[in-house]
Design brief:
Elements: H1 2-15, H2 19-22, H3 25-47, E1 49-52, H4 54-72, H5 79-98, H6 102-128, E2 133-136, E3 143-145, H7 152-171, H8 187-207, H9 210-227, H10 229-245, H11 247-254, H12 256-262, H13 272-288, H14 292-297, H15 318-346, H16 350-369, H17 377-387, H18 395-398, E4 410-413
Antiparallel strand pairs: 1-4, 2-3
Length: 422
Amino acid sequence: MELFLIKIAAFFRPIASLEYAETLFELVGGALFLVLLGALLMRMATSKAVYLSLIDLLIFAFVLWCLAIYVVYYDSARIKDVAKLLIPPLTYVVAKNVVQTRCDYRALLLWMLAGFVLPIVLSVVLIATGEGVDYVSYWTDLPRWEGAYVGAHSMGHSMTLFLIALTVYWATAGDGDRDGVFGTRSPVFVALAAVMAGLSLYCLYMSQVRSAVLGLLVFAATYLYFVRRAMLVYGAIATAIVAAGTVPYWLPALLPEVAMMQRGIELDVMDLGSDRPRYWLNDLTVFADLPLDRKLGGVGIGAIAEHSVGPRLYGHNDWLQILTQTGLVGLVLFFALQAAVLRRILRSHPEERALFLALFCAVNIMMLVSNSYVWRIQVSQLYYMILAFIEIRDPRRKSAEVPARQAAAVAVPAGRYRHLAE
């Protein structure tokens, strides 16, 4: 039953990102998390144990720190942003304890992919009929499309995550997962996957979200480098040829700064990336001027742009936002969490290592160049569900892992808590 509950959450999370559901975000997001919490409690009741690892402990430490600074600086924080920040990593703890086998994991991914079908198809229909415009660029006169989502960035990052999730579903298939209606060798599944991949690429391009495009390219290049280097070379050559022949079509959309300079508009380095260097410098300057307590605890979770208390903050960099909103302590805890995840990935079986290393690199690079996977719960919650595979305790996976010291993880009987250091 608990596995079914987490499948329901995975299915409805993409649907809850639709513009028409976003107005009920607090209710929908809270309900999905309660479903996940219920799944974990049911697992604890039936198995009498919950498994904690170093990653889980760092998640709990980060959550406790964020709750503490929210209480201390409640006047400059927003509870909705606290929920957006903390629910996704807590989802990881739930998913790794509820999902027990590779088969369960792929079933979860299949429900997640199914949940993307309606938003993708609806977005394509809206774009094709001239609806779903986010805004028209002042400099290039080109529309940026949001489809059925709230904002072009939500649609762009959602499309990238769908394509990554589809790749993970395909790559984690074992011999017994290749046949059947949804097997990776099924003509029906291959046809549906190809159609949905094509539609999502179309939506990604129409969103003009460069950080999402960059994330997809990083994922594909990293993964192919480890598993299919010849395909990476041929793909890069083919992409370069197509890109060179279609410059007039994608240049104004994906590189508007170049198109602006071609029209005689003077730009400096601060204007690049939609003024990101200027925003980052502003936020670093504001942080440097904070008193010591605020340097340690941040300006308040959610205190950005129009919600800022005092000097205006802009973000456009998840790592920088973690620094300014949760302080140096929050940044150290978040960095330690990412390091623990990377360490666990590097200890995985080589094939899984390449897949999840590509996912990890893509997401962290997107976080570095934009606001993408920290407060954007539409993708971050699903990302942590996908990432949970690295700690699934399927005996068949454990026997295939590379030799290494045991992870700092133990079975914790319900009602008792113990942790063994390495």
